[in-house]
Task: inverse folding
């Protein structure tokens, strides 16, 4: 069966279809998130056996996480500890804007005499956290060491008590027992917390992807999903234009030859109500099914499902909204 699916995928690619980058069925676990990066003196120390500072490695990890987050319509911000500051103001998450903020973090700096007021930094960010859409995630990237001022564990407890629906996750660059113990205590405060080592995320792509999935979304990409680039729809429409019909003509040839069962998932952009877009997405899936049946594909092999709004592509741009107005083929 796997060989058959692979052959089907290859045939589809030959006629201009492309695999879905992040296929359907992903549902965000959180509505907003914050990156909180420790910029203290201890983070400016080099990782043992390397010429790379912990702060530089933390920047790499944050960039990798930012790249791996699926575009599901999050709100986001970024803060720093030592000094306590807002690096990216809260608003609609934009991958490029967040990366610009990450690029602006320090990778090197003074070490001696620079203790870590982590608790003070978290307390300073608490007012901003209160504004975040719930559920919300705070990804704390730190070595947990050399703390001074407010106890960071006590401050996280205070935030939890005052702000339901928020959860701290820990990316550790600790190289001392003291630092790791502090981070472990924060991670142990709630069952929702995910705690990982930054070095693992840098060394293992699978570990990075698991962390992103654990924190940001449920579900997974379909094993084999195809997006028919060109089978997109005008705003508020489910009419197939000539380009779409041409691509579906080619798809019908393969579907008839292989006699495979396919689910047709219709999608919309984010404009309009959920109820309206659910109906519109169903009409788009139905339109593709009807056309394929007219070309001789057995109706019993096709299931049309309206998925509603899509956030796979950027709904803030005209191009992104156009790409979201699509139908995906899911091979059963």
Result:
């Amino acid at each position: 069966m796997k060989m058959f699916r692979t052959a089907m995928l290859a045939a589809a690619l030959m006629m201009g279809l492309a695999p879905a980058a992040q296929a359907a069925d992903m549902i965000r676990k959180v509505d907003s998130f914050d990156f909180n990066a420790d910029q203290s003196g201890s983070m400016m120390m080099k990782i043992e056996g390397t010429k790379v500072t912990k702060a530089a490695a933390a920047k790499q990890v944050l960039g990798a996480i930012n790249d791996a987050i699926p575009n599901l319509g999050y709100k986001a911000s970024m803060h720093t500890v030592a000094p306590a500051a807002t690096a990216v103001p809260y608003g609609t998450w934009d991958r490029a804007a967040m990366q610009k903020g990450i690029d602006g973090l320090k990778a090197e700096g003074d070490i001696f005499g620079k203790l870590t007021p982590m608790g003070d930094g978290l307390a300073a960010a608490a007012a901003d956290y209160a504004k975040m859409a719930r559920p919300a995630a705070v990804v704390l990237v730190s070595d947990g060491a050399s703390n001074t001022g407010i106890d960071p564990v006590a401050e996280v407890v205070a935030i939890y008590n005052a702000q339901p629906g928020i959860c701290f996750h820990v990316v550790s660059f600790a190289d001392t027992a003291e630092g790791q113990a502090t981070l472990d205590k924060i991670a142990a405060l709630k069952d929702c917390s995910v705690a990982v080592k930054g070095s693992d995320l840098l060394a293992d792509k699978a570990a990075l992807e698991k962390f992103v999935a654990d924190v940001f979304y449920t579900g997974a990409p379909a094993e084999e999903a195809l997006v028919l680039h060109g089978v997109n729809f005008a705003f508020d429409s489910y009419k197939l234009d000539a380009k779409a019909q041409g691509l579906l003509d080619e798809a019908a040839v393969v579907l008839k030859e292989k006699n495979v069962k396919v689910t047709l998932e219709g999608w919309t952009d984010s404009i309009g109500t959920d109820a309206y877009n659910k109906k519109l997405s169903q009409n788009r899936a139905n339109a593709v099914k009807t056309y394929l049946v007219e070309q001789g594909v057995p109706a019993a092999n096709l299931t049309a499902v309206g998925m509603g709004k899509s956030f796979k592509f950027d709904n803030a741009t005209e191009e992104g909204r156009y790409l979201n107005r699509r139908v995906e083929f899911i091979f059963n």
